[in-house]
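This section describes the prediction task in plain terms. A model, or a person checking by hand, is given the sequence of a single protein chain and must write out its three-dimensional structure as a string of tokens. No templates, partner chains or ligands are provided. The sample shown here is typical of the held-out split.
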Amino acid sequence: MRARHSSALLIAAAVVAMLLAAPGHAIAQTVGRTATPTPYIYVPPCSAGYGAGYASGCGPAPPTLTPTRIPTITPVRTATPPATFAPSRSATPASGLPSVTAASPPAGQTTPSPTRPSFGAATATSTTTAAATRTLPAATPSPALSPTPLPPFVVAGQPLAGWTVALDPGHGGRDPGALYHGLHESEVNLAIVLLARPLLESAGARVVLTRDRDVLVGPADGTITQDLQARALAANRAGAHLFVSVHANVHSDSEVNGAITFYGLEAGYAGGQRRPERQVELSHQLAGAIQRGVVRRTGEVDRGVRPATFWVLGATTMPSVLLESGFLTNEQEARNLADPSFRRRIAEGIATGIFDYVASGQVLPTDRAPAVTGNPSVRYYEVTGHNLAHGFRHFFDTRGGLDLFGYPRTEEIVENGWTVQYFQRARFEYHPEHAGTPYEVQLGLLGDQLLQQRAWLR
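The expected answer:
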């Protein structure tokens, strides 16, 4: 019995040895040496605009969209801090604040007006009630972290040439933000922004920081709202085309984790600001792009894109978002946010999101699209400026055409995981699992009504 057992062990060892020696085997490639990370290379999409991938066979699926008119939710960050800071030490304004000279916008992009909006009483950052107040527990040191090897992050060309991007590390100085597990939120925010700046600059962007060290941006003895207003004005005066505020989150439930990106609503701000519908839609697109970039690069839980009325999202005059990079109240996520390599991944996610947003051409789904030529499966409708192709075209032609559905109002887009296309009186939804059956394309007769709810029809 012992002899048979020994023979079986020898045979098993021989099989393992053969597998390890096999060419290209993952284990064999890493035995006896350190694996070299594969470079992450960002390459812009092969064409801009919605639907180009599906209609012309060019590259990946069109960008994921979720409906803009989401029911108002209660953000988990503290939205209404005290109106004044308890003085603890003197602070000076951040050095290197942007010049008031506006940069020229890219072709086809409207430069936001730098005119200062009218504000009411400066007593709150948002009209949204916070779900959890920031209780400051006794800080405990974070466990030592071993560096995580990162693949090189390479940008092809300069996709941000001509763009000015404002980065805003939240809090600072006498306002440290959240304090959990030995981490100051203000320090985490600044570290991420300082890592993102060279990535954007290498892609050709002019980058403006609202602060570059641990200080307030507003008056040293001012209110929180004055500090937030100073951040928005820095971006407006710089003629920034995009504004990204970076924060870390908290929650009363320490198990909650993940990344969230907020964009501003049309109205409802404490200062009475109003944002044009198109600016809200573009902010929604930017938020989605950054959220996808951060989740892809970090592997964090995707908590989605949500609307909010944070002061900086209403007081800025360009597409603006606020990223909550993770929850300091979650022990593991706090460990991650203390890790320089994880912070670097967040910065890369922000940069990737901005690249994708710029490459998309900043078009709304209802904006006119160029005609796809050279493909007999695609028909272009000059009346509304949209293409109709493949399965959607077949369904359109055989189930009622213009008389029933009206003209196409969008290109094909991805919405809630489905490829869809809107018409004046219908919404087509493509189901690949039913390809070749009568259920391949499914229908809803609510076209323009749904588009008006999303403010896509102006």
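For orientation: Residues 277-298 form the longest helix (22 residues).
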